[in-house]
Design a protein that fits this description.
- There is one protein chain.
- By secondary structure, the chain is an alpha+beta fold.
- The protein has a single domain, classed as Cathepsin B, Chain A.
- The protein has helices at about 10-15, 45, 60-80, 85-95, 105-115, 155-165, 175-180, and strands spanning about 30, 40-45, 145-150, 165-170, 185, 195-205, 210-215, 225-230, 245-250.
- Strands 2, 4, 5, 6, 7 and 8 form a 6-stranded mixed beta sheet that branches. It has a 3-stranded mixed beta sheet with strand order 1-3-9.
- Helix 3 (about 60-80) packs across helix 4 (about 85-95) and helix 3 (about 60-80) packs across helix 5.
- The radius of gyration is 16 Å and the shape is globular.
- The termini are far apart.
């Protein structure tokens, strides 16, 4: 833990950034992955499947960043092309969600089935709700399939991450997470009451401690250049990482 930009934030200011709504899994099947011969380490950042660390600002749009991250990663796995997708499209145009007042990653991924995602360049992000300016002719990536990853199972989550980056929910309203700077969080003080959407982009071991590598959406000056390592643990996992993972494939 250390001093960072959130040291003087009030609880209310931090709450505005944690916009995950209760999970909605209608229409989502649960996938089961082969956990034999899992690699010791997976890192989609170094593999080129992860875009730059973005910043959601004072807007509860974490769910949109988690969803675009999963779609960006799936598109890279399918095509070898890395494209930054538009969170603003989801915030402004996915009317089953609440924009800066919160949402759920699964619904956002499902939205992209019928509304192919524009790029970040064509539909840039601003940290506030806006009128929908979606242009379907500029859509470049859409979900082909999506499924739940078996919850409370670290091996299943690892096996899913080995396929592609995975959208995950965590609890992020505790200081042990907010003031993270480096190393592996193993403390149960992080909690498991999920309120924040992020992206699992790898796993490995550091100083004998297994971890999941997670990309946040609080900018590159937070944490370890915008990333955090959460320890591997049973049940819901550290910060609740194994509570409701979702994996996607793209057209």
């Amino acid at each position: 833990m250390g001093i960072n930009m959130f040291m003087d934030y009030t609880k209310e200011e931090m709450k505005r950034m944690n916009g995950l709504k209760p999970e909605t899994f209608e229409g989502f099947e649960e996938a089961e992955f082969n956990t034999t011969d899992l690699a010791d380490e997976v890192n989609w950042v170094t593999a080129g499947a992860v875009t730059y660390v973005k910043n959601q600002g004072q807007c509860g749009s974490c769910w949109s960043f988690s969803a675009t991250g999963a779609l960006e990663g799936a598109h890279f796995v399918a095509t070898g092309e890395l494209v930054a997708l538009s969170e603003a499209q989801l915030v402004d145009c996915d009317h089953l969600q609440l924009g800066c007042n919160g949402g759920f990653m699964g619904l956002a991924i499902r939205y992209s089935e019928r509304h192919p995602m524009e790029t970040e360049t064509d539909y840039p992000y601003v940290p506030k709700n806006g009128a929908c300016k979606y242009d379907k002719s500029k859509g470049v990536v859409s979900a082909k399939s999506y499924s739940k990853v078996k919850k409370h199972d670290s091996d299943q989550l690892k096996a899913a991450i080995a396929k592609a980056p995975v959208s995950i929910a965590i609890e992020a309203d505790k200081s042990v997470f907010q003031q993270y700077t480096s190393g592996v969080i193993t403390s149960s003080a992080c909690g498991t009451a999920t309120d924040h959407g992020v992206l699992a982009v790898g796993y490995g071991t550091e100083n004998g401690q297994e971890y999941f590598l997670v990309k946040n959406s609080w900018g590159p000056s937070w944490g370890d250049n915008g990333f955090v390592k959460l320890g591997v643990a049973p049940g819901a996992g550290i910060c609740g990482i194994q509570s409701s993972p979702i994996i996607a494939t793209t057209n």
